[in-house]
Amino acid sequence: MLTQTATEPEKSLPHWRLTLPPRPLSGLTVLVVEDSRFASEAVRLLCLKSGARIRRADCLRSATRHLRTYRPAVVIVDLGLPDGDGGQLIADLHAVEPRVPVILAMSGDPDRAREALAAGADGFLPKPVESLALFQQTILTVLPPETAAVVLRVLPDDVIRPDRSGLRDDLTHVAEVLSGARDTTAVDYIARFLAGVARSSHDPALEAAATALARDHLAGHALATDLARISSLVQDRLSRVAEI
Known about the structure:
This protein is α/β, with parallel strands linked by helices. Helix content is 49%, strand content 15%. The protein contains 9 helices and 10 strands. The model is unreliable at 1-10, 15-20 and 148-154 (pLDDT under 50).
């Protein structure tokens, strides 16, 4: 149960701006199930600054292997994974006894928060996941009641900036998938994955193109123009990242 003692200036702050310094997640193991290298690097840095240990799975199959061998305290699941829907993994984890103490969903589409909570998630992290205070407080507020009480204080709202090499890896992956995209499954994956990458890297033009691809794909429209535009944008971003 979290307790709070605040000074007068602190009382006007939102609750998520209050957290335990300097490493409030020490002793916790976090499993992040995320296929984006850029997004998972952001979570790794957030865990590192918070004192938590982290393991990563890049798909449902890999997550299942991890969960057979150890029990993390926190599982963070991206809702769009290459081999299935992260929402199903959340539902499965929620149903298992003993339950993982904290299950969080993560997505570049904030509209999926309700779906994730209905599946059994304790909370939702919208991409980009960058705020250290928000990351810590999202976990601390849903830890089981038996967790020892802590005293909270204001934490500077540090923002995490992951290394751009992860973005390069993600864009290279998209380019490879695009080169062989022939069926609807590949197109759907490209649209979802790239929208998340674009949101995490603050690239509205790329996100808009990925959203248009998803919309046209859902409507059954011709995709050649969308795919050509996506391919051009991805190559442009790759050349920019290479120059950094």
